[in-house]
Amino acid sequence: MTDTADSAAPTEDTAELPSFPMPRRCPFDLNEQYAELREEAPITPVDLASGRDAWLVTSHEHVRTLFLDPRLSADGTHPTFPILAPRRKSFDEQARGFLPWMDPPEHTRYRRMLINEFTVRRIRAMRPRVQAVVDGCIDRMEAGPRPVDLVRALALPVPSQTICDVLGVPYEDLDHIQDRAEVMVSKVHPPEERAAALRDLRTYLGDLLHRKGREPGDDTLSRLVARHRAVGADDHDHLTGLALLILIGGYESTASTIALGTVALLAHPDQAAELRADPSLAPKAVEELLRYFSVADNVTSRVSLEDVEIGGVTIRKGQGVLLSNAAANRDAAVFPDPETLDIHRDARQHMAFGYGIHQCLGQNLARLELDVVFSTLLRRLPGLRLAVPVEDLPFKDDAIMYGIHELPVTW
Amino acid sequence: MSAPAVRRAVVDRDVCVGAGQCVLAAPDVFDQSDEDGLSYVLVDPLPEELTPSVRDAATRCPARAVQLEAGAGAGAETGAAAETGTGADPAADRQPTGPSPA
Ligand code: HEM
Ligand code: SF4
Hints:
The structure holds two protein chains of two kinds. By secondary structure, chain A is α+β, with helices and mostly antiparallel strands. Chain A has a single domain (5-156, 251-410), classed as CATH 1.10.630.10. In chain A, 46% of the residues lie in helices and 9% in strands. Chain A has 17 helices and eleven strands. Chain A has helices at residues 33-40, 60-67, 90-94, 106-112, 120-124, 127-143, 150-155, 157-167, 174-185, 191-214, 220-230, 236-249, 251-267, 269-277, 282-293, 325-328, 363-380, and strands at 19-20, 43-48, 53-57, 72-73, 148-149, 301-304, 308-310, 313-315, 320-323, 385-386, 408-410. The longest helix of chain A has 24 residues, at 191-214. In chain A, 45% of the residues are buried. Chain B has a single domain, classed as Alpha-Beta Plaits. Chain B has three helices and five strands; from the N terminus they run βαββαββα. In chain B, the strands form two sheets. In chain B, strands 1-4-5 form a three-stranded antiparallel sheet. In chain B, strands 2-3 form a two-stranded antiparallel sheet. The chains are: A alpha+beta, B alpha+beta. The complex binds protoporphyrin IX containing FE and iron/sulfur cluster. Protoporphyrin IX containing FE is lined by residues 74, 99-100, 111, 163, 245-246, 249-250, 253-254, 257, 295-296, 299-300, 325, 352-354, 358, 360-362, 365-366 of chain A.
């Protein structure tokens, strides 16, 4: 009974199910139904736009426990994986080497080829380079006309230039990459164009990896090629997938957090003033902004490989599970007064980077970029303000990654 | 149990995923190796005043790789046990792999 196709549905009665994701109440807050669900049914069946349904988990405790459960698989190509929207067949083919979808032992093998590139120490040593990137962006903002779109002027270039530095991607290729990456994640381009952009990026990186193999430099891609050879794995497709993931994995998420974080700081001028006066508050402020926006809420999905009993329900083998890190990050049991932005709170238990074996590999790089961006922006442009009212900002309400399309600012 | 317990911080390197949370939580106790990025313990046994930072690291470690061992053979506190005290956490059932050779 548990092995039939029916088992992919948490309940027979699908007529009344709430749908996921639920529209936000406002740019800063989630739909109020998440809090109600957390109280009454923290693990509850929901409907997805893909036509599949799944268990939605909204409490910090259960999300965390399930992130650690080895019976849940991250394999996005699994036939009953809770995909949010219908997707094209060719997509699974493109997923080769996609670390977030691997399960152990494959996941362990590939992740271990990367982790020493992202240690706390290595990332700390990058601070001067990130600072130079941020200063360069603000120099150009100061020299140009106002108002200026902060997304194009700062939020996107900081993560893309930084990751090119890390990977050893030549700066002169950045425009091409940025253009392709933007098309790939945009909603306005048709699916064929987006698929073509992804193919272009794979081709570009594949060629670059061959070059790094022949003429290694002091960068992550060169070391990745060498390490790959050392363990006898010469699967070029897999390697290209890993490189692609690092190149674009942290691009939109970091950019979104920069743009949204700026809006939040401008909406809370007292907290912005404290941060400007005391930059040592930045690490705490960054954790709080990560918690508050949880931009990557929709990526932490799993499918159960066995029956799992938790919180009074049974997640059957084959059923999908949505571990809502945004909902968990608004759980009052862990974050008192969760809807209030408070840069002084201890937000470190947030799961905006996920939890368990897939927890974000680039998290310390993202923290560094956010820290440098917010402290530098407040210091160098103390008169920064929105050029349009908050209500008029184009928030990405229905994108996979939460964010803002455009953020006109002046000072 | 009357004398102050000798405690040790332990990292299960088979489980570690290199997220560096332990280094952020307890920089005096943990470091990530340049070689493989995995965490290792800098001080053994653990000075009493560093115990809270290790508990913090154990709770934050996303792989439950950090343990606080209370003396020889006295069992271990994992992040799960220290935090919730329930057996509901599946990681709590995982068998510790024991001290690594080296
Ligand atoms: C604010 C910025 C960021 C956010 C909110 C974020 C969020 C996340 C989340 C939630 C996951 C876990 C997915 C899951 O459990 O299924 C993840 C994984 C990952 N992230 Fe990030 N990320 C950010 C920045 C970055 C950066 C800068 C990089 C690259 C340098 C990066 C690379 C990765 C990789 C490679 C994984 C897969 C890890 C694995 O599966 O083992 N991320 N990220
Ligand atoms: S926090 Fe856990 S997984 Fe991360 S480096 Fe430390 S021991 Fe390893």
